[in-house]
Amino acid sequence: MTFRNRLRLFAVSGLALFTVSASLPPAAASGAPEARHPSGGGLSATVRYTEYGIPHIVAKDYANLGFGTGWAQAADQVCTLADGFVTVRGERSKFFGPDAAPDFSLSSAAKNLSSDLYFRGVRDSGTVEKLLKVPAPAGPSRDAKESMRGFAAGYNAWLRQNRDRITDPACRGASWVRPVTALDVAVRGFALAVLGGQGRGIDGITAAQPPTAAPPAAGVTPKEAAAAARRLLSTQNADMGSNAVAFRGSTTANGRGLLLGNPHYPWDGGRRFWQSQQTIPGELNVAGGSLLGSTTVSIGHNADVAWSHTVATGVTLNLHQLTLDPADPTVYLVDGKPQRMTQRTVTVPVKGAAPVTRTQWWTRYGPVVTSLGAALPLPWTASTAYALNDPNATNLRSADTSLGFSKARSTAGIERALHRSQGLPWVNTIAADRSGNSFFSQSQVLPRITDELAASCSTPLGQATYPSAGLAVLDGSKQACALGSDRDAVQPGIFGPGRMPTLKNTPYVENSNDSAWLTNAERPLTGYERVFGTTATQRSIRTRGAIEDVAAMAERGRLRVTDLERQQLANRAPTGDLVAADVAKWCAALPGGTAVGSNGTPVDVSAACPVLRRWDRSVDSDSRGALLFDRFWRKAAAVPAAELWKVPFDAADPVRTPRGLNTAAPGVGKALADTVTELKAAGIALNAPLGEHQFVVRNGKRIPVGGGTESLGIWNKIEPVWNPAAGGYTEVSAGSSYIQAVGWDGSRCPVARTLLTYSQSSNPNSPHYSDQTRLFSGERWVTSRFCEKDIARSPQLKVVRVHERR
Question: H/E/C letters for each residue in 638-703?
């Protein structure tokens, strides 16, 4: 029996299915993805819902699959999606006022006005329309564009049917919830692509104006710039990170591969994941998590291969320092020849006020930028300006890379997809397959900055920022300092696939947001350019803990999916293993049981000593002492490393160094005294179970949350928001999000367990607002229903047929 016939049988047989036929009003006439009017065209799909509101979307082609995806995403996340579409249309100031802050999911803009000025400039210049017309593989394929068209039509169809029934208070009755176009969908993808490049510099791009007679803005020294660039470009302590590990078949119980993916993303806003299965019979069948607004599965698995991503250390932008014409600061010189900047004049409508018009300045290298964050000013003076190069500003290929993954049948297919489209802007890829292969590649779209080019063309500023942070600042006055091209690269000015750090078929490949160097500690990767990341440098405690864990798992062998589940939720705190015993011993020996706080006041800390000694070194909800150590270590970790550790970092022993807490460092005593004072003032017992004071509130009910912050080194990373007046950590800003543990047995159905930590919908009135959050709290998983027989057996199966009336 064919798949299509089986689906028809399941839909009409007496399986006690609850079926809804959604006949929707016709949308406006359809058009190509670059069309500016709402999309339509008689599209349809079947959406089958199983437990936790997970949709399994079936359609006959990519346009119809996009339709079902757009419809189902809107049903769960219409307010978040609509807010993002307001952003990429440059209309935040119009609806929310110019001085309010965006949610930062689609850019770094501090205020709505700068966000609007940038995205209006993208619209007015036709940037994305031009990219949509570039032939594949340098541009998006027909399938990718059709999925964008379908997504817009599906979103609009849901909105037309349900606008008056929106229950989410975030946008109920809001005028800014409007139909969208395929171009809106494409621009949202563009915004995600440039997050690490132009997206970092939006305030500096939109504020850049030629110098006047007023004194120029103050700059920073090269040393200060290097420190600021390190902070700006660090993948640690950011709102996006991840862990992922793939095990080769030699380490598993049945010789097949295993993959555990644990992306750390924001819990609110437009960078949430949304879970689904997408099927075009005979063409594509994939399940996983998609970033909101994406038409494809971002992280997932099919019947044969599973993959995840981790935020990579590659620096996706560079600067060109311009030498200006002394007579005109809007003219720059290249090999002595004048080049006039291009003006991009942008007008933004503003709520309750006159429109704002500003001019942006563009060069052959990219836009003029006057800062990369407040700590890294780049003043435009009479003699010098800086232009930002972002190769992802010409990359609209990520959907094609994801489609390639979705259709792959092995890790070799994953690699081919990476090479063919080169569409991933800022992530690594880790994969495993049913044949037992493991795979890692840092295949990013990066500016082609070789160490040789940086050595010969860096300005004094770049001589400081490139070695320290990987941020190249090149001499823009010399044509010889332009970025070159690799023959195998999809677009000019980027590295080709042959230059990407890649490791295949080692017992494990693992990444926790450090560089590719220790992907496997027994097989260090070297030889890549500094712009990709560092080698032989100190790793984060999360990387160190992860390598300890997965190397031990690989050595033990006979691994199963259940071992991945245990690793994800073990909540071991590697920092606790390193220092808690030393702190407890030192604490017990303090004269009079007192330590001096940062305000100079002696504090009785004696009650903390036994709590730290008895702490189980984990951050489970029932762990006593975890909260005390968490608050202590956040303060102690600020002590300079040279003072904090007795044994410094050693590149020959990178997993075990630095180590040996120096309890004599003054900052350690202050940290403990301040922590005891803080918790007592909040009325929190030093030995309180973590879950009593680390929780989220959903519909008025507390849900305890395990896991912990970056500096504790925990695989199950959670970045909670400290609010002692409300009980401690009362919300989560970012952390574990769409988690998947995937393996294979002898059947055609993958063995997969998933968790969407913050649940499928952000609507507090949805039944799927907190159901998976409660699972996460209880350390329980969702058993993936991938095969037809498993979907049909779901006790909560509901079939919805959605289509447009012709």
Answer: CCCHHHHEEECCCCCCCCCCCEEECCCCHHHHHHHHHHHHHHHHCCCCCCCEHHHHEEEEECCEEE
Asked if the structure places residue 328 within a domain, the reply is: no
Query: Annotated catalytic, 242?
Result: yes
Judge whether residue 120 has pLDDT over 50. Answer: yes
Q: What's the rounded Cα separation, in Å, for the pair 119 and 191? A: 9
Give me the CATH number covering residue 592.
Answer: 1.10.1400.10
Judge whether 703 lies within some domain. Answer: yes
Place of tokens 């990013």: 444
- Indicate the number of domains in the chain: 1
For residue 235, what pLDDT is reported? 75
Domain that holds residue 663: 571-714
Residue 569 has pLDDT above 50, yes or no: yes
Classify the C-alpha dihedral 270-275-280-284 as positive or negative: positive
Euclidean distance between CA atoms 109 and 91, whole angstroms: 14
Nearest-5° Cα angle at 619, 768 to 591: 150
Furthest CA-CA distance within the chain: 83
The residue behind tokens 């490393």 is: 641
SS3 571: coil
Q: Are strands 337-340 and 342-350 parallel, antiparallel or unpaired?
A: unpaired
* φ, ψ at 96 (rounded to 5°): -120, 0
Which listed residue (30, 39, 107, 242) is catalytic?
242
Please tell me the number of Cα atoms within 13 Å of 408 on its side-chain side.
30
- Give the position of tokens 């290929």: 397
Q: Are 300 and 309 in contact (CB under 8 A)?
A: no
Q: Is residue 512 part of a domain?
A: no
Express each pLDDT in 505-536 by its tens digit. 999 999 999 999 999 999 999 999 999 999 99
Is 680 part of any domain?
yes
Average pLDDT over residues 205-229: 87
Q: Report the alpha-carbon distance of residue 385 to residue 330 in Å, rounded.
A: 9
Backbone angles phi, psi at 655, to 5 degrees: -80, -25
Task: Return d(Cα 285, Cα 287) in angstroms, integer.
Answer: 7
> Looking at residue 622, what is its pLDDT?
97
Confirm if 171 and 84 have CB atoms less than 8 A apart. Answer: no
Hey, what's the torsion of the CAs at 295, 297, 302, 305, to 10 degrees?
A: 130
β-bridge pairing 645-647 and 659-661: antiparallel
Q: Is the pLDDT of residue 215 over 70?
A: no
The tens digit of pLDDT for each residue in 700-728 reads: 999 999 999 999 999 999 999 999 999 99
pLDDT exceeds cutoff 90 at 81: yes
